[in-house]
Write a structure and sequence with these properties.
The complex is a heterodimer of chains A (about 110) and B (about 110). With about 110 residues, chain A is mostly beta strands. Chain A contains no helices and eleven strands. The chains are: A mainly beta (about 110), B mainly beta (about 110).
């Protein structure tokens, strides 16, 4: 059974600082997704990582995937308050349904 | 439509009642998923449709849960004899045949009292 672990689960940081969220998973996959969720809202797709070594950047967020280590990271650069949200990583089950197994999420609070 | 649409956005029901939750996927998307998200948790897979057929229903928690997609577009998740533990946000997502990314709807928040 595929397990996905995120850490930290809660992150409070100051504006302007950098930090990294980690996502480990237990079985082989080369499909890794990062989503953002604001309170009471649905999931907004941030990044789709489909191969070992994939790196994608959008604004202050950068995601990477190491399939050999079964690890993805979401790096936050010079955080701003608008980045406050819960971030989920999800691993795709290849073949068949392509369903997603989600981590528990990282609740990020960026303080002024 | 432009995105995945779910109705109702909120549903409060009494324990033991029957509920139906509707999902209207992105036009042309053949893959449709239902997930359930409990408070403070990540979404958990319930069921996957490819076209009209339920290709993977391994996430349905028990036989009180059932879903249909009769014409390969709109899907309905049906919950019989609701229990308080069924309270959660039910999310629907759709994906095209050639796409790798699933797009999520706004969800239906179900509260069983």
């Amino acid at each position: 059974e595929l397990k996905v672990e995120q850490n930290p689960l809660f992150l409070s940081m100051q504006e302007g600082k950098n930090y990294t969220i980690y996502c480990n998973y237990s079985t082989t996959s080369d499909r890794l997704y990062w989503y953002r969720q604001d309170p009471g809202k649905s999931l907004e797709s941030l990044f789709v990582l489909l191969s070992n070594g994939a790196v994608k950047q959008e604004g202050r967020l950068m995601a990477s995937l190491d399939t050999k280590a079964r690890l993805s990271t979401l790096h936050i650069t010079a955080a701003v308050h608008d980045l406050s949200a819960t971030y989920f990583c999800a691993v795709g089950i290849q073949g068949g349904s392509e369903k997603l197994v989600f981590g528990k999420g990282t609740k990020l609070t960026v303080n002024p | 439509g432009a995105g995945v649409s779910q109705t109702p956005s909120n549903k409060v029901t009494e324990k033991g009642k029957y509920v139906e939750l509707r999902c209207d996927p992105i036009s042309g998307h053949t893959a449709l998923y239902w997930y359930r998200q409990s408070l403070g948790q990540g979404p958990e897979f319930l069921i996957y449709f490819q076209g009209t057929g339920a290709a993977d229903d391994s996430g349905l928690p028990n036989d009180r849960f059932f879903a249909v997609r009769p014409e390969g577009s709109v899907s309905t998740l049906k919950i019989q004899r609701t229990e308080r533990g069924d309270s959660a946000v039910y999310l629907c997502a759709s994906r095209s045949d050639v796409g790798t990314e699933a797009f999520f709807g706004q969800g239906t928040r179900l509260t069983v009292v």
